[in-house]
Amino acid sequence: MRGRTWLGAALVLGAQLRALWLAAAVEVHTAKEVVAVNGTNQRLKCTFSSSSPVSQQLSVSWNFQPEDLSAHEPVFYYLKEPYKPPSGRFKERVTWDGNIERNDVSIIIWNLQPSDNGTFTCQVTNWPDVYGTIGEVRLRVVQKVNFSEIHFLAVAIGSASVLMIIVVTAVIICRQRRRRARDKRLEVADTD
């Protein structure tokens, strides 16, 4: 009797572990934060990996949580084909930009506005991988591009390069003038 109990327990545990392994196999990858300029378009990249091949039942849900933490809003849905939202703030402003065969489920948001500040979530289910991570992208819409450290560094290096060229040119001109002046003095001394 004990052997059967252990065997039964092992079979149940094995089935549960297999189910857990399959259920947690979808991983979603996104940029964690994106900054875009007001009035522009922005691609929100979302890719996924799955232990199962892409199935006909693959579905993708994009949702939006505004910064003021009001209710979630649907942004986009995909099941065999893309479905744009029939209403809401993203109606006529969102486009499918993914490629299922490349595990890419990205979208483009058009004509960004400050009210689009918030967190976008990307969720992928690929039967039998029905559970997994949910990707999040925090979008910040700004009025103009901030002067980043990279830009500052580029300007500093460019300015230093121009300054070095000016200094080297000034030194060469000064040396040539001194040489000419010395040559004239030697010429005058030779004629005397």
If you had to describe this structure to a student in words, what would you say it looks like?
This protein has 192 residues and is α+β, with helices and mostly antiparallel strands. The chain has two domains: 23-142, Immunoglobulin-like (Sandwich), CATH 2.60.40; 145-191. Helices cover 34% and strands 29% of the residues. The chain contains two helices and eleven strands. The strands form three sheets. The chain has a six-stranded mixed sheet with strand order 2-11-10-5-6-7, with no helix packed on it. It has a three-stranded antiparallel sheet with strand order 3-9-8, with no helix packed on it. The chain has a two-stranded antiparallel sheet with strand order 1-4. The longest helix is centred in the last third of the chain and has 43 residues, at 149-191. It is elongated. One of its GO terms (cellular component) is plasma membrane. It is a single-pass type I membrane protein. The chain crosses the membrane at residues 150-174. Keywords: Disulfide bond, Glycoprotein, Immunoglobulin domain, Membrane, Signal, Transmembrane, Transmembrane helix.
Compact description:
The chain contains 2 helices and 11 strands; from the N terminus they run H-E-E-E-E-E-E-E-E-E-E-E-H. It is of the alpha+beta class. The strands form 3 sheets. Strands 2-11-10-5-6-7 form a 6-stranded mixed β-sheet, with no helix packed on it.
Features:
single chain, 192 residues, alpha+beta, three-stranded antiparallel β-sheet
Query: Tally of extended strands?
Result: 11
Helix/strand-derived class? alpha+beta
What overall geometry do the principal axes of the alpha carbons give? elongated
Strand content: 25-35%
Main beta sheet? 6 strands, mixed
Number of helices: 2
Give the class-level CATH name of the largest domain: Mainly Beta
Helix and strand pattern: HEEEEEEEEEEEH
Main location: membrane
Pfam families: V-set (PF07686)
InterPro entries: Ig-like_dom, Ig-like_dom_sf, Ig-like_fold, Ig_sub, Ig_V-set, Myelin_P0-rel
GO cellular component, one term: plasma membrane
